[in-house]
Amino acid sequence: MIIDKLENASRYFMLHPSLEQAFDFIESMEDDDFFTGKREIVGDHLYCSGISGETKGFDENIWEAHERYLDIHYVLEGKERVFFADPEEVKVKEAYNEEKDLTVYEGEGKEYHIPAGGFVIFFPGEIHKTMVSSGQPEPVKKLVIKLELA
């Protein structure tokens, strides 16, 4: 997992050649450009999901991990709580679904603060929970970039 500010994104371009395209896409977004649903950047290899919704309570969101895709989460409006779990802290609730690239877990983890203007990268196999409220549900607009690694 990497947590940093968008202004430092170039530090991570060396990790994968498509990361620069991913962050260029995020940086090019204007308020009027926001969309919901999936938008391909480079086919299924690199795409973005625009999410507009409300945060939910801790127990209403799932712990998840992916095997094929890296996630970049970037909040445009609102705020959310983000959690990360070590494999020893959770157990599999739903086995890996290859079509959805998703394993669902249950258990506990640690909360991490994402700074204003910040992003978080979750690598394949990293168990995470996002869109968690700080008490009351709050509206959030965010981008989730998916980069295929496997």
Automatic annotation (TrEMBL):
Classification via InterPro entries: NanQ/TabA/YiaL (IPR004375), NanQ/TabA/YiaL_sf (IPR037012)
Which cellular components does GO assign to this protein? cytosol
Q: Which residues form a coiled coil?
A: none
Pfam families referenced in this protein's UniProt entry, alphabetically: DUF386
User: What is the protein named?
Assistant: YhcH/YjgK/YiaL family protein
